[in-house]
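Quick question about two entries, pasted in order.
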Amino acid sequence: QLQLVESGGALVQPGGSLRLSCAVSGANIFNYALAWFRQVPGKEKEGVGCISGTDGVTFYVDSVQGRFRISKDNAKNMVYLQMNNLKPEDTALYYCAAGPMRWVVDVPKAFQYTIWGQGTQVTVSS
């Protein structure tokens, strides 16, 4: 059974950087698509970006393009979300998710991902 555990959330000032980590256990990430989502109270989960565990191709939502970067370490079974130039509107609960497909073709949608972590809070505020 695949399990995901996020870490790295924190309070950070606008313009700052943060790296979130997602530790994956139970299976090798090579055979999965991995994604980061975020959610604020009262709103649906928003797909931030995704990465193919097989070939490393990534897709990002427009609002984070050029500021956020997803990477993976297949040997460590880890997925990362590097967030730079953070803005107050990036404040959210961030989730790591895994989907039963090896490749990604677009910005992630929640229904495509079947296994979720518990989330880690990111707050951007001065």
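Here is the second entry:
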Amino acid sequence: QVQVVESGGGLVQPGDSLRLSCIASRLTSNMYFMGWFRQAPGKERELVSGISKGGGTTYYADSVKGRFSISRDNGANTVYLQMNGLNAADTAVYYCAAKRTQTITTDAYAPDWYDYWGQGTQVTVSA
């Protein structure tokens, strides 16, 4: 059974950095688009960043461009989200999601598009 497990969240101060990791076991990672979503209390789950199967195409929400960086190591079935310059607006539960696909469309914005989800990791940015 496929398992997606996130780690790396925590409590940090504004301006700090965190690196989230997502390990997707029992799937052929180079066949899956991977996305990082976040959900803050009272808000909808939103796509923060995504990366294509081979890592050649990446996507970032406007709110994180220039601060977050996504990468993947298919040999280790792992996707990373490096988050720099964190601020209070980044506080949320961060989820990793996987979609087996040959093409990337605007469907990637929709949580329902994905095949597998992790349980989430909390990121709290507070002074």
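Reply: The mean pLDDT is 94. DSSP finds no helices and eleven strands in the chain. Hope that helps.
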